[in-house]
């Protein structure tokens, strides 16, 4: 056990995103709203295949969408020039 913490608290956290997507009562949102996907190539939290996969699904469903891919950014867009895009 860690000497720094006695326990980790997960408040309303999601574990199984697929199951949660089907279980939500929030059926009022539009599944056809335009979407912008932004992903960094150095993101170690979310694999780039997740961003590319989301964009591919949007394109296949003919939902207006664009993707910005920054090969030298991580989970956050830190480069000031990239933030302006």
UniProtKB/TrEMBL annotation:
GO terms for biological process: proteolysis. Gene3D superfamilies: alpha/beta hydrolase. One of its GO terms (molecular function) is serine-type endopeptidase activity. InterPro entries: AB_hydrolase_fold, Peptidase_S9_cat. Residues 33-80 form the Peptidase S9 prolyl oligopeptidase catalytic domain. Keywords: Hydrolase, Signal. This is Peptidase S9 prolyl oligopeptidase catalytic domain-containing protein.
